[in-house]
Amino acid sequence: MDLGIKGKTALVCAASKGLGKGCALALAGDGVNLVITARGKDALEATAEEIRSKYGIRVTAITGDITTAEGRAAALAACPSPDILVNNAGGPPPGDFRSWSREDWIKALDANMLAPIELIKATVDGMIARKFGRIVNITSAAVRMPIPELGLSNGARTGLTGFVAGIARQTVAHNVTINGLLPGPFDTDRLRGNFIFNAKKLGKTVEELAKARAEANPAKRFGNIEEFGAACAFLCSAHAGFITGQNLLMDGGAFPGTL
Description:
This protein is α/β, with parallel strands linked by helices.
């Protein structure tokens, strides 16, 4: 399927690896020029060169922390008028809520709620003026089914989801959509980090936990970044203008609900 976005420009956050990289690869495959960000320069530059070599599109790599004002300013200076915005940032660490301070909560909110809102605020009016815009927020399956040890992430990402539910209904008349992608267990560093945390707590090996988690999923496996990116690219496509304010759960069927 031709997604109808060849020649558009996308700002993809935290795109050096994992789910952000999957989204960047999928968009590049449909001819979208990219500005990608991440904190680690070496991994980011390697990803940028990989995408340039494979797809022959423009890729600008901006090293910085998108959860900070400085990081956002650098990204927006390189890409002030994106047609597509993919919000993404690493989640806060797991732990026990009894040990979290106000500072921990503010840091989580800054990274996983307020930073995406600031980027939306900086770019959405330009999208409205051009009569095209696609915003995808990478959040978490925990928005639907909270994970106890990830309470900081549960709270911050659910807050972003609630905010977007309102504004997505205001922008869609201008062909600007805002949706969420809710990943479940994907084979990423984040998932492996959670296994390490729980392995220490439960006295088991990381391999034992990973095998059990995969087997417990209806799909009997973890997701991969390529299929996640493909879903993101469709939500960013010219064909998805009637989809807004939605949250696509990608968890292999793990959530047991009907709706």
